[in-house]
Each structure stands twice: as C-alpha cells, then as structure tokens.
Specification:
CATH class of one domain in chain B: Mainly Alpha
CATH topology of one domain in chain B: MetI-like fold
Number of helices of chain A: 11
Radius of gyration of chain B: 24 Å
Distance between the termini of chain A: 26 Å
CATH superfamily of chain A: MetI-like
CATH topology of chain A: MetI-like fold
CATH architecture of one domain in chain B: Orthogonal Bundle
Shape of chain B: flat
Oligomer: heterodimer
Number of strands of chain B: 0
Helix content of chain B: over 70%
CATH class of chain A: Mainly Alpha
Helix content of chain A: 55-70%
Number of strands of chain A: 0
Strand content of chain B: under 5%
Distance between the termini of chain B: 9 Å
Largest interface: A-B, 41 and 45 residues
Shape of chain A: globular
Chain lengths: 321, 305
C-alpha cells in the first residue's frame, strides 16, 4: 500500500510532474498548489502544536486571581483574564486540547463504524445491502441532535458514577471528567458515521465491478488480498477527504453541546465552553467572547479549506451518495 | 406517486414506534425523576405525586397507557408545570419556533441562492472568489459565535435593536439572520456546484445554439436541474434549522419549543420530553418525504421507486 507522504513543515521547491509518479504524489503536488488549503493546513499545524505544547509553558489554566478579576488584554495577559482572574490565553490553549481531541477521537469512532458498516454492505451486496442501507436512510431522517442532547442529559448520572469509581476504586484521580468525555465520544460518534457509511458503500459497490478487480480475481488472488491490496487503497482518497470534513462537524457538535451546558464540564474546558462563558459576559468583557469565538471559527475555516483542497487534489468526485 | 407516498407513510409507523419506545425507556431507566430534584419533598408527598401521575404503576403498564393516550392525540400532563398538558405547552411554544425557522429559511434562501448563482455565472472571476470565500466564512462561524457577535455589535454597541426578547418585528431580525446565515452559506455552495455541473451539459449547448437568450438559458433550462442538489439538502437543512433553534432561542431568550425541550430534559419532565421528541420526529419525517417528492418532480429522470 503506498504510504501518504507526511506533511513537511518547510515546503521544498515544486517538483516537475514525472510520467511515472504515483497518484499520491500527484495529489500532493495538486494540494500544494492550492494556497488556501496549504494556509489552512499550516495554521492547523501551528494551532495543534500550541495547544499540545503551550500549556506546559504558559500560566496554568486553573490559576485564579480573584483580586485581579477580568482585565482587558495587556502585556502580562496577552488575551486578558476572565472574571476569576484566570489567563485567557492559557485557557484557550487548554480548551483547544480538549476540543481538538474530541474532534479527532470522535471522528475516529465515526470512521471506524462508518467504514466497516459501509464496506460490509457494499461487499455483500444484494438483500443484506438493501436492508443495511435502508436502516441508514431511516436513521438519517431522525432528529439526531435531539437524541444526543437526551443522551448527554440522562447519562450524566452514570458517567459521574464512572468517575467516582475511577477515583475511589481504581485510584486514577487524573481522569477527572473521563466518564463525561467517553459519553461525548460515543454520542457524537454514533451520529456522524452515517455519511461515511454511505460514501464507503457507494465506492465499494462501484469498485467491485471494475475490471482491475476482476483481473485480480482471475489471477486467483485471495479475497483478503483483493480487499487490502486493491480495494482499500482506492477507498483511501474519499475516506481521507470525508474524515477531514467530519472533524469540523464533530467539533461543532461538541461546542454546540458545551454551549448548551451539556458537553465538557468544569473544571475542564473546551472552546465551546469558553464561548458559552464569553457570551454570558460579553456586555462588559468583550474579549472573553471574541478570542475563543475567533480561534474556534478560524480552526473550522482551516479544516473546511483543507478538506476542500484534499477533495480537489485527490479528485474525489460525486461521492455524495 | 400516491402509492409511493402511501408506502412511505406506512413505513413511518414502525419508525415512530421505535423512536417512542427507545425514548420512553431510555429516560426511565436512568436514575432520578421529575420530583427528585426538588428539595424537601417528604416520602408521602412523593408517593402521592407519583400516584397522581401514574408513576407508581409498573413500567410496561405506563408505556401501554401512554401509547393508548397517544392514539387519541393526548400527550399527557406536564410534570413540571402543574395543571398544564403537554399539548397546551406545545401549542403555546411551537408557533414561535416555526416562525423563527420559516423566517430563517427565507433568509437562507434569499441570501444563498443569489450568491451561489452569481458565483456560478461569473465562474473564476473575482466575483466568484468573493462569493465562495464569503460562503466558506459563513459555513465556519457557528451560530453561537455569530449570534452573540451580532448582539454585541447591533444591540449593545449601536443600540439598533434589542439584545433579546420576541415582541416586535425588529426582535426577529438578529435571530433569523444568525440562524439563516449558516444555511445561506451551504445553499450558496450547493447552488454554485449544481449550476456549474448543469451548465456544462449538452442540452444547455443546444439551447444556446437555438439562440435562446442567456436569461432564458439560465432560468428556463439550467435552474431546474441546477437546484437538485439544493433540494436534497433542504431535508437535513430544515432539520438543522429546527434543532439549531435550541441555541438561538437560548441566546436571544425566545420563548420557543427548542428552549423548552432542553429545559424539559434537564427537569426530567418525562411527558414533555417525549411529546417534543415525537413532534420533532414526525415533522422531520414528513419534511423528508416532501423533499423526496419535490425531487422527483424536478428531475423526471428519477422515478418513484
């Protein structure tokens, strides 16, 4: 299986297209020509590095200074402080960790369910496929946001039990809020897999009938070899594109829940929770809304542009069911 | 077509039944009830309350009772608002949410369609780039950021409108603009994509060759096909606008059903939660059916399966 070239931080001079270059290399060259996608990718890289590494260097996100209270951006606190005197920049980085993690993990959950479900339906075809996809159609028509909200409200008790159990019985005190996070992953993952299943199923269905698969069969290759050597690499393009586009959708859902007070719970924080906090206090302290909202929007913006760029670069056309 | 609609309606019954059953048992199997949150309720009062609302019956009995009453269109009494039925609460709050949703949809179509058409017709010019970039920004700024920013600018800074409330026509502006913007962006992108695809097709070349005016080519021939992706998006979009109103109603303190639903979930107002879920599910299923019918009507190549 050809490996994807890793994202190099510094862009080398564009190489000329060679007649024998791999499709992945072609895609990489096309992607690099898309300035907005490159800018989005770089911005995401910087943001991720800051969020992952930043909290080790900056002031802690929890350190309160009640005498200080809310102050406007200044030299000491670049983005100001909140009403408890906590440094907003540090909280933004820490919240970003959670938001990005939720985005990646929940996308992983959705990806796993969606790809396996779609692949199975596509491979088996026939009646099984019809039944499986009819189920997806029905689920698609459901008010899923409502179920996520219900799940988050009503499973709060059990998830807190899990936290207490983790703390008192297993003595893992560092995992505060773990049950809630688990719930969040499950709830979001359960919603977002549908599109992926449709896309993968459609791709498998059309690839199955292609001549190169027939040729592979004629050559007597095993089913497994056909799936992993011949089908999967062709599926990778759409999967990468839609995974990239699922991340912002997932982050949006997390922030939506946090904004309603259902997502990440204090003392943890996420961008959505910070925006909620900021929206409540914006009348006096505008920076509490503007910076978290700005950073969050910028992240979604970058992810959308990167996803669009990848779609063009990998030439994923008409993959919409 | 009638057979298609009839079959889809028949399919709806088991789906709704599953939704009702799943919701009913999910909210019941979790510890805590509508009266446990209140402090200082003595055991006797609690028993009396539960007896009054039939909560002391076995669960399957309650379930069957609920279904029986539902068949008569009765969604039961609310647990949190004494002396009010769920039907009354919904009749009270739904019109507000529907108005918000309908106006937002109008905003979305009114902004998104022209933007997408303009971008498609002026492809790869600065107009196209401007429209597309605007759409991308609209898509990336969530309602719960956009809404408070609008309030900050238009209400708090310039005092043009009220920051919250739902009284006069001016109070409609910010909420509907906020909710509509996101969907306007998506609609613009879909319109652009759909139109570009159609404009490349042979029948458009034929129309041009016949000497039809540009306006006739676009509005008479291309638009119908170009709007197809948009129509299939409208189903999810309407769902999004309905649930998106949860946040909007919270930000702008609008007395609609969305805010009521979130509150009822927090309050464990079982009947109100169930009633709202049933209502939303029915609405969505009906709208999706409508979208499917419109799609076939717009695209004769599709057939009612």
């Amino acid at each position: 299986m050809p490996s994807l070239s890793p994202l190099p931080a510094a862009t080398p001079a564009p190489e000329p297209l060679e007649p024998g270059s791999s499709p992945w290399h072609d895609a990489w060259v096309r992607l690099r020509q898309n300035r907005l996608a490159v800018a989005g990718g770089l911005l995401l890289l910087v943001l991720t590095l800051l969020c992952v590494g930043g909290p080790w260097f900056s002031q802690t996100y929890q350190a309160q200074n009640l005498d200080l209270g809310a102050t406007a951006p200044s030299g000491a606190h670049w983005l100001g402080t909140d009403t408890l005197g906590r440094d907003l920049f540090a909280r933004l980085l820490y919240g970003g960790r959670i938001s990005l993690m939720v985005g990646l993990v929940a996308t992983g959950v959705a990806l796993t369910i969606g790809v396996s479900y779609g692949a199975v339906a596509g491979f088996l075809g026939g009646k099984t496929d019809t039944v499986m996809m009819r189920l997806v159609d029905i689920l698609y028509a459901l008010p899923f946001t409502i179920f996520v909200i219900l799940l988050m409200v009503f499973m709060k008790g059990p998830s807190e039990h899990l936290d207490t159990w983790l703390r008192d019985t297993v003595h893992l005190s560092g995992l505060q809020g773990f049950g809630n996070m688990l719930l969040l992953f499950a709830a979001i993952g359960a919603v977002e897999w549908l599109t992926m299943a449709r896309i993968v199923r459609g791709q498998v269905l059309s690839l199955k009938r292609m001549e190169f698969i027939e040729a592979a069969r004629a050559l007597g290759f095993s089913r497994r070899r056909i799936i992993f050597r011949h089908l999967l690499p062709n599926l990778l393009g759409p999967i990468i594109v839609y995974a990239t586009l699922t991340v912002p959708a997932v982050m949006l859902l997390e922030a939506f829940l946090s904004f309603l007070g259902l997502g990440v719970q204090p003392p943890m924080s996420s961008w959505g929770a910070l925006i909620k906090d900021g929206a409540e206090k914006m009348e006096e302290f505008w920076w509490l809304l503007v910076f978290p909202g700005g950073v969050f929007s910028l992240t979604l913006f970058s992810l959308n542009f990167l996803g669009d760029g990848l779609r063009d670069a990998l030439d994923v056309r008409a993959a919409q069911d | 077509m009638l057979r298609f609609i009839a079959r889809r309606l028949l399919e709806t019954i088991p789906v709704l039944l599953i939704i009702i059953t799943a919701t009913f048992f999910m909210i019941r199997f979790v510890p805590g009830g509508p009266f446990t949150a209140e402090k200082a309720v003595t055991p006797e009062i609690l028993r009396n309350l539960e007896a009054h609302y039939g909560l002391n019956q076995p669960l399957h009995r309650q379930y069957l009772d609920y279904l029986g009453r539902l068949l008569h269109g009765d969604l039961g009494p609310s647990f949190k608002y004494p002396n009010r039925t769920v039907n009354e609460i919904i009749a009270d709050k739904l019109p507000v949410s529907l108005e918000l949703g309908a106006l937002s949809l109008l905003v979305a179509l009114g902004l998104g369609l022209p933007l997408g058409l303009l971008a498609a017709l002026r492809r790869n010019t600065w107009i196209d780039y401007l429209c597309s970039a605007t759409a991308m920004i609209g898509l990336s700024v969530p309602t719960f950021v956009l809404g408070p920013l609008f309030v900050l600018a238009a209400a708090i800074h310039f005092h043009w409108v009220n920051a919250s409330g739902w009284y006069g026509p001016l109070d409609r502006v910010l909420p509907c603009l906020t909710l509509g913007c996101v969907y306007a962006a998506a609609i613009a992108r879909l319109t652009r994509g759909g139109m570009l695809e159609v404009l490349q097709q042979d029948f458009i070349r034929t129309a041009r060759a016949k000497g039809a005016s540009e306006a006739r080519v676009i509005f008479g021939h291309a638009l119908r096909g170009g709007l197809l992706p948009l129509v299939s998006y409208l189903g999810p979009a309407i769902a999004g606008i309905l649930t998106g109103s949860f946040v909007i109603e919270t930000i702008f303190q609008i007395p609609g059903l969305g805010r009521e639903f979130v509150n009822s979930a927090f309050n464990r107002d079982y009947t109100l939660v169930l009633g709202t879920v049933i209502l939303y599910a029915t609405l969505l299923i009906a709208l999706n059916l409508l979208v499917d019918v419109v799609q076939v009507w717009l695209n004769p190549r599709l057939k009612f399966e």
